[in-house]
């Protein structure tokens, strides 16, 4: 099962649209692609949660990060030893709102005895992580596959 999250405005109110799509037997890559406004998709691979950010994340509206964090965290809130990978390969840059979301997720993952990693981080985003010393907090892998394999091996 994978989930796509989109933040949008409707009559002046922030609305989060959560879309659930039945898992295709050949994997999500062969399913309908997420809408261009989706900020991220969430996939479950056994005990591992894969959160893939899209370019729409770069323009996430102020105030929607709280809803986004809630939807992401709900995926592993009650899971023992959650394994979480954020695939950022489609995102060039992100700001403080997304850093706050990453930190919230990491705190919960740690409290539940799990592990979290980042994958596909752009040069620009790596520099931001380095400046904030967050590159020392999360392991960073070149690809989602590498990150998934590393977390599942531990």
TrEMBL record:
<dbReference type="GO" id="GO:0043856">
    <property type="term" value="F:anti-sigma factor antagonist activity"/>
</dbReference>
<protein>
    <submittedName>
        <fullName>Anti-anti-sigma regulatory factor (Antagonist of anti-sigma factor)</fullName>
    </submittedName>
</protein>
<dbReference type="InterPro" id="IPR002645">
    <property type="entry name" value="STAS_dom"/>
</dbReference>
<feature type="domain" description="STAS">
    <location>
        <begin position="46"/>
        <end position="151"/>
    </location>
</feature>
<dbReference type="InterPro" id="IPR036513">
    <property type="entry name" value="STAS_dom_sf"/>
</dbReference>
<dbReference type="Pfam" id="PF01740">
    <property type="entry name" value="STAS"/>
</dbReference>
């Amino acid at each position: 099962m994978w989930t796509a999250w989109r933040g949008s405005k409707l009559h002046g109110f922030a609305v989060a649209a959560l879309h659930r799509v039945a898992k295709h037997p050949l994997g999500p890559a062969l399913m309908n692609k997420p809408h261009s406004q989706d900020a991220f998709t969430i996939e479950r691979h056994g005990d591992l949660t894969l959160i893939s950010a899209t370019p729409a994340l770069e323009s996430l509206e102020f105030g929607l990060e709280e809803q986004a964090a809630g939807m992401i965290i709900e995926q592993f809130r009650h899971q023992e030893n959650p394994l979480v990978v954020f695939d950022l390969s489609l995102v060039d840059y992100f700001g403080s709102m997304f850093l706050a979301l990453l930190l919230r997720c990491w705190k919960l993952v740690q409290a539940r005895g799990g592990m979290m990693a980042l994958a596909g981080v752009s040069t620009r985003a790596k520099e931001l992580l380095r400046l904030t010393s967050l590159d020392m907090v999360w392991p960073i892998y070149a690809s989602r596959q590498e990150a998934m394999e590393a977390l599942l091996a531990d």
